[in-house]
Design brief:
The chain has about 500 residues and is mostly beta strands. A hairpin with a 4-residue loop joins β28 and β29.
């Protein structure tokens, strides 16, 4: 047996199979995933193992590793690496950056295990100056303040060294400047407290502190004391709104469409973005700059929770409600409607007509079949002449009369009594007929009589011609139907036949 490496592909001599591990491909330092930064990179370390590298300087233990390797980053810039972008805050992460020595005797550039970016300080954020070389990034579980693995987004940004870290009114206390050491970001406005380096009045002013709610329902909100700490997605940026609040729902079951709207009691605009399971990804639903009762947005349940971001008037606080309703993914076929309809979840529902009715494809309404769909109600005609037919408004009749080919949607005509004549019936244009329906024609001595003649494919377009000599007085029954053949392109429609 030849084992390449624990957690990777394993081959077995003499056996015609491979053993494939479910481990993540970048759990080992030597198999770091190459990335181009800046960017956001999803991760899930629940299936990772511990690495042979020593524990970093900022944590006593590091388990469930994942590694990424950036492109060379020019000197004069700062690298910002964070797990603060929508990760589950209950797992305790540690971030480490190594220099060009890589996996052999690695040299730390930065390390962080307890960032102020989330309530409780369990997530990680580090800022360090670029060296002109690639950076090896290590994400692991610190194993001290919660589960040692989780999933979310690794966010890597590159900013100029002279770009200030402090954002007035948003950040407070002592922060590590991107290139030149600690920086005092000051104090917050009156009535706002400094918590973990941020000026926050409410935990749910950021995604990581989202309040848990249950959908469907009505959730009251008050934007007093809220700020704009979180970035706005592209769909909300043009609104000019701010003061965002965050909620996280229970897992939304599949098979439902969820409609979400926000209402400001003062009639001021609001907007809502919905994110699938992670903060700060591309929203799965978004409404922009709407007023109460308008601009609903909707999404399909996936079995996962969703984050809801509400933004409102940035100039003055407001109060209102966040409203959510569930609609089951289906379409109820109304009586009298037929054909294909789009359901509220984007799939299709086929609605059928009851017996003795057919679907009008133009109006998608059920209409009664024509009377001459049955031989007993055959349309009376006086020959010779040219006669109209419509087998689109017909179904398969109950007639058991013999026929020479498979048919569908048959209609019947009956002549006056004929004697001593040669009769020719045709849907071919050669003999005066006119139709694009591929037809079968048959002639009988009556509705319970015998078959006199039957035919199909008499002319180039698969129309039909039959003929018969009538010697004794006979009331002739003519049956016209679509030719049920795999090569037929039109089985029903309108047209004329000659007799």
């Amino acid at each position: 047996m030849n084992v390449i490496k624990q957690g990777l592909l394993v081959s077995c001599f003499g056996l015609l199979f491979f053993c494939v591990s479910a481990r993540i491909p970048n759990e080992d330092c030597n198999s770091a995933l190459a990335i181009t930064v800046p960017g956001a990179f999803p991760y899930d370390t629940s299936k990772s193992t511990s690495n042979a590298l020593a524990a970093p300087s900022c944590a006593t233990v590091a388990t469930h590793d994942a590694f990424w390797l950036t492109q060379p980053i020019e000197i004069g810039q700062a690298v910002v690496v964070s797990t603060c972008g929508g990760a589950n805050q209950t797992w305790d992460s540690v971030l480490v950056a190594y220099g060009p020595s890589g996996c052999v005797d690695p040299v730390e550039l930065a390390c962080n295990a307890d960032s102020p970016c989330a309530d409780g300080g369990k997530l990680s954020r580090m800022v360090f100056p670029a060296t002109g070389d690639p950076v090896l990034i290590r994400l692991a579980g610190a194993g001290a303040g919660g589960p040692a693995f989780g999933r979310g987004l690794l966010i890597v940004d590159v900013v100029p060294c002279d770009e200030p870290i402090c954002e007035e009114g948003l950040m407070c206390g002592t922060w590590t400047s991107n290139c030149d050491g600690p920086r005092d970001c000051g104090v917050c406005d009156e009535g706002i407290v400094c918590s973990g380096g941020y000026c926050v009045a409410h935990p749910d002013d950021e995604c990581q502190g989202a309040t848990t709610i249950n959908f469907p329902g009505v959730v009251p909100w008050d934007s007093s004391g809220y700020t704009q700490l979180s970035p706005l997605p592209d769909c909300l940026a043009p609104t000019g709104l701010g003061r965002d609040r965050w909620w996280i729902t229970q897992p939304i079951p599949t098979g439902f469409r969820v409609n979400v709207s926000a209402c400001d009691a003062g009639g001021r605009p609001t907007a809502v973005a919905v994110y699938d399971d992670y903060c700060y990804t591309v929203p799965i639903a978004c409404s922009s700059n709407v007023t109460c009762g308008f601009g609903d947005t909707s999404f399909l349940g996936t079995g996962r929770p969703v984050y809801v971001q509400l933004v409102s008037d940035p100039e003055q606080p407001g109060i209102g409600t966040l409203n959510a309703t569930f609609t089951r993914c289906n379409y109820t076929c109304d009586v009298g409607l037929c054909g294909q309809f789009v359901t509220n979840c984007g799939d299709f529902k086929q609605c059928s007509c009851p017996a003795r009715q057919v679907c009008d494809v133009d109006t998608q309404k059920c209409i009664p079949v024509l009377a001459n769909n049955e031989c007993a109600n055959a349309t009376r005609i006086t020959v010779p002449g040219t006669f109209s037919f419509n087998n689109a408004q017909a179904v398969n009749s109950s007639s058991r009369l013999q026929i020479c080919a498979p048919i569908t949607n048959d209609v019947f005509f009956v002549t006056q009594s004929l004697v001593g004549v040669h009769v020719r019936v045709s849907t071919c244009d050669t003999f005066g007929g006119a139709t694009s329906v591929q037809t079968v024609l048959a002639a009988y001595t009556g509705c319970q009589g015998r078959l006199l003649t039957c035919g199909n494919y008499a002319c180039a377009s698969q129309q039909s011609t039959i003929s018969v000599v009538i010697r004794n007085a006979t009331t002739l029954v003519i049956r016209l139907a679509g030719y049920l053949n795999p090569h037929s392109t039109q089985l029903t429609g309108t047209g004329t036949f000659t007799l």
